[in-house]
Design brief:
It is a single chain. With 286 residues, the chain is of the alpha+beta class. The protein has a single domain, classed as Kinesin motor domain (Kinesin, 3-Layer(aba) Sandwich). The protein is built from 9 helices and 14 strands. Strand 10 (149-160) and strand 11 (166-175) form a beta hairpin. Helix 1 (3-20) crosses helix 3 (49-63) and helix 3 packs antiparallel against helix 4. It is globular. The two termini are 30 Å apart. Mean pLDDT is 84; it is low at 137-145.
Length: 286
C-alpha cells in the first residue's frame, strides 16, 4: 500500500464528517520544499489529498442519493502578504473578511467567487484554475516555492429527503506556505517580505493552537487573515487534522525539529465533541 493511500485512510472519515454536517480543517504544514503542495495536489498519476478527498465526497453523495439531496459549493483563495486573493477570479481579485450583517456573528468574504459543482470532473477543472493562479517564486530552498497559503473551501448543504432536515458542512483543505529561516533561503527584497509575512502568520496559527490547547477563553483568531478566515472551522466543536512534512536531508535537521515540535503541540489539542450544524440550530455530538 502506498504512503499516499495510507495517509488518506486517516483523512477519509473527516471528509465524510463534512457531508454529515461538521466543519473540518485539513492542513499541510512544514518547511519550504518539504512536499506540502505535492501532498495536497499530487500529480496526474498520483493524486494528492485534495483530489482524493473530493472524489471520496462525491462517491459518498452518490451512495446516499436515495436518502439525501446535496449541493456542493467551492471557493479557493490564497493569503499572500496578508492579502486575500480569489484564485477563481480572472485577475486574482483582492478581497476582505467581514462580519455578516445578519447578526449571527458569522464571517463572510464579499465578492468571493463561489462555484456550485455537480461532480468530480467539474471540480477538477476548478482545482486546475486555482493552481494556475497561485503565486510561486524560487528560493535557494525550493525552485518553485509557494509564497502564499492556499485554501480550498468546500461547503456541502444536505437535505434529508425523509424528514426535510438540513445540514451544512464545511471542508477546508489548506496548503500552508513553507516556514523558512530567512538566512538559509536567501530571501531578499520582495521574497524577504513574503517570508516575514509567512512566518508571522504561521506564528499566529501556533498561538491559536496554544490557546486552544490551554482551553483559554480568548482565542486570538484575528491576529492573521489565515486564522480569522478559518475560525468557524478551527475552534471547539470542529474537526482538524494536520499533515506535517519533514525533509530527509541532514542539512535541514533544524527545520525538521521545529516542525516536529509544532506537530507535538497540535497533537495535544483537544477540541471536545464535534458539533453537527443543522438548520434547527440544535447541536448533535458524535
Amino acid at each position: 500500500m502506498s504512503a499516499e493511500i495510507m495517509v488518506f485512510q486517516e483523512i477519509g472519515p473527516l471528509v465524510t464528517s463534512c457531508i454529515d454536517g461538521y466543519h473540518v480543517c485539513i492542513f499541510a504544514y512544514g518547511q519550504t520544499g518539504s512536499g506540502k503542495t505535492y501532498t495536497m495536489e499530487g500529480s496526474v498519476e498520483n493524486p494528492g489529498i485534495n483530489q482524493r478527498a473530493l472524489k471520496h465526497l462525491f462517491n459518498e453523495i452518490e451512495e446516499r442519493k436515495d436518502m439525501w439531496s446535496y449541493t456542493v459549493n467551492v471557493s479557493s483563495v490564497e493569503i499572500y502578504n496578508e492579502l486575500l486573493r480569489d484564485l477563481l477570479s480572472k485577475d486574482g481579485e483582492k478581497l476582505d473578511i467581514k462580519i455578516n450583517p445578519d447578526g449571527t456573528g458569522q464571517l463572510h468574504v464579499p465578492g468571493l467567487r463561489v462555484t456550485e459543482v455537480k461532480g468530480f470532473q467539474h471540480i477538477k477543472k476548478v482545482l486546475a484554475k486555482a493552481r494556475r493562479n497561485r503565486i510561486t517564486f524560487g528560493t535557494k530552498m525550493n525552485q518553485h516555492s509557494s509564497r502564499s497559503h492556499a485554501l480550498l473551501c468546500i461547503t456541502v448543504h444536505g437535505t434529508d429527503l425523509a424528514n426535510g432536515s438540513k445540514t451544512t458542512g464545511k471542508l477546508n483543505l489548506v496548503d500552508l506556505a513553507g516556514s523558512e529561516r530567512v538566512w538559509k533561503s536567501g530571501a531578499e527584497g520582495e521574497r524577504l517580505k513574503e517570508a516575514q509575512n509567512i512566518n508571522r502568520s504561521l506564528l499566529a496559527l501556533g498561538d491559536v493552537i496554544q490557546a486552544l490547547r490551554g482551553n483559554q477563553t480568548h482565542i486570538p483568531f484575528r491576529n492573521s487573515r489565515l486564522t480569522y478566515l478559518l475560525q468557524d472551522s478551527l475552534g471547539k466543536g470542529n474537526k482538524t487534522a494536520m499533515v506535517v512534512q519533514v525533509s530527509a536531508l541532514e542539512t535541514n535537521v533544524g527545520e525538521t525539529l521545529c516542525s516536529l515540535k509544532f506537530a507535538q503541540k497540535v497533537c495535544r489539542v483537544e477540541l471536545g465533541p464535534a458539533a453537527r450544524k443543522i438548520e434547527s440550530g440544535a447541536a448533535q455530538c458524535d
